Amino acid sequence: MCEQDRRTRIADAAIELVAEQGVRALTHLAVDARLELPRGSTSYYMRTRRALLEAAVTRLSVRARADFDAFAGSAPPPDVRAAADRIAVHLDRMLGARRADTIARYALVAEVAASTDLHEPLARAAFSRQLAVGLMTALEAPDPDTAGADLVSLCEGLVFDRVIGGRSLDAPEPGSPASIDQLSCAVETFLRGALLSNSPR
What we know:
The protein has helices spanning 3-21, 28-35, 41-45, 49-72, 80-95, 99-111, 116-123, 129-138, 144-163, 177-196. It is mainly α. InterPro entries: Homeodomain-like_sf, HTH_TetR, TetR_C_31.
């Protein structure tokens, strides 16, 4: 196994540990144990805990961005309903297939809040404000910059509420048509409201 593959496996294991047990569980020895590596292997590649955190943040950002890009599509959706449905599918994946990554992201965002070089790319990893503004421009929102920023905030809130907030108790099972439909309805309501806004703020 080449060094880059080993580093990627270590970063993936770090993300799994954070998602399952919290940031405090992330240690060099815990990663060694998770990967069944000889004691000290992880610290050979990442000397400090900061380096281990950086590897996890970078890897999580890469994974999140790749998943987002795969579902964003190459062209803006043709109408509000299509846009809401496309966004809902992505949000539902964050709640279901990529739930562990979502939980790890929240935990790591809090852990690295004081480190701008780590916090900012991770905080922006799941959603693209630039693409959101582009979508609102394509939909002819009166104030696409504000609407795009608000759309990102809405998406973050919908995911957070279903992973950590009270809505998770009564929300449909991720991956089900009901889950996607519920998310789509919330996004569509926002989009239609943004398009009806009379003037930029």
